[in-house]
From TrEMBL:
PANTHER family noted in UniProt: NA(+)_H(+) ANTIPORTER YJBQ-RELATED, NAPA-TYPE SODIUM/HYDROGEN ANTIPORTER
Subcellular location: Membrane
Name of the protein this chain belongs to: Cation:proton antiporter
Predominant subcellular localization, coarse grouping: membrane
Membrane topology: Multi-pass membrane protein
Length: 374
């Protein structure tokens, strides 16, 4: 990645937050960032090469991990009533998962592909990375906690299921990797919790604040990317490592200053970089070149909206139900991992990402309805 590409990414990343200052602009920032990526990437002008090793590492690994880490820290683990909410949200996520299986197999049969289980996982998935920021500022009443729990459960379950659906022959290795990453996250939680009031933590806290060392931030980032590195050894996506560590930190209680620093680092640079890069990876032209794959993308996106919206039958507010249909991390990881494994062709990968982009339309419809639903 040269200086021109880097400067261009920083400049275009300003467009989304500037547009958000206009109150009538109802599209979430992340959606605008992905659309910007579409314009400057493979689908549009082609001035940014998403396959550039430096860019793909900074955005697809570092940015992805940080975005999912921040999303994980938004899960209200210690909030009163979260246990009951987990049951309600988990049941809805499970019901959608059950419905997604025949839908996924039906879509695979209709289009003559061998990726029925992958489609099922995609249809059942939710995106904490998109939904959690949108939910900031929404009153936490009624079904709110159940909604957050549903999104978290669906995200984690589909992240776990994704490598098994893509490469069932290596299921044992993938399951071992998932277990190791989970144990590491539990270990981080245990250390943070037991040392919360220790003398050493207090010294580190005082010194880093007085001398501007940002030591707590450095430790948080070091822990995150050690876990990401371990996950990569087992072929596990950085999204799982980031999200699990974020949940662990949220459960232990992250210092407010460190939370602001990580949030600023992510939202100020790595988050926009990831979402714009994700947009550049989508080759809509490849999907349009094959009408069958274009139709596949449309069917995947619309099917996800319908499946999740059906939860209104369980008395879930319509805005909440629609928000759970948003896909992002799981389709992105599917294309990244599946492309490396040769599971599908480039036009099918484009169709999967196109389906995810269509599901993002749910945010535009759901966002105005969230406060009234609470």
């Amino acid at each position: 990645m040269n200086a021109f590409s880097f400067a261009l990414l920083l400049v275009v990343a300003l467009i989304a937050p500037l547009l958000s200052l206009w109150k009538r602009w109802g599209i979430p920032i992340v959606v605008v960032e992905i659309l910007i990526g579409l314009v400057i990437g493979r689908s549009g002008l082609g001035v940014i090469d998403p396959a550039d090793p430096t860019l793909s590492f900074m955005a697809g690994t570092v940015g992805f991990a940080l975005v999912m880490f921040v999303a994980g820290t938004h899960v209200p683990v210690g909030t009163p009533g979260i246990g009951n909410a987990m049951v309600r949200g988990g049941m809805r996520a499970g019901l959608i998962g059950v419905l997604a299986v025949p839908a996924g197999f039906g879509i695979a049969a209709l289009f003559g592909t061998d990726n029925a289980w992958l489609y099922s996982v995609l249809l059942a998935s939710s995106s904490a990375a998109v939904a959690m920021p949108i939910l900031q500022g929404v009153p936490r009443r009624d079904d709110y906690l159940a909604l957050v729990a549903q999104i978290a459960v669906a995200d984690i379950a589909c992240i776990v299921a994704l490598p098994l659906a893509l490469e069932p022959s290596n299921a044992l290795v993938r399951c071992l990797g998932l277990a190791v990453v989970t144990l590491l996250a539990v270990g981080v939680f245990a250390v943070l919790k037991t040392t919360a009031d220790s003398r050493v933590r207090q010294i580190i806290h005082d010194e880093t604040r007085e001398r501007g060392l940002a030591l707590e931030l450095r430790i948080s980032l070091a822990l995150l990317f050690v876990v990401v590195m371990v996950a990569s050894l087992f072929g596990i996506s950085a999204m799982f490592a980031g999200f699990m560590l974020g949940v662990a930190v949220a459960a232990a209680g992250e210092p407010r200053r460190v939370a602001k620093q990580v949030f600023g680092l992510t939202e100020g640079f790595f988050g926009p970089l990831f979402f714009i890069w994700l947009g550049t990876t989508v080759d809509v032209k490849a999907a349009f070149a094959n009408p069958q794959m274009l139709l596949l993308g449309l069917v995947l996106g619309v099917s996800a909206l319908i499946l999740h919206a059906s939860m209104v039958l369980t008395r879930q507010p319509f805005g909440y139900a629609l928000l759970t249909s948003v896909q992002l991390g799981v389709p992105a990881a599917a294309v990244s991992i599946g492309g490396a494994l040769g599971v599908f062709r480039e036009d099918e990968a484009a169709a999967i990402l196109l389906g995810a982009i269509i599901s993002l339309a749910a945010t535009v419809i759901a966002k105005p309805r969230l406060k009234s639903a609470s």
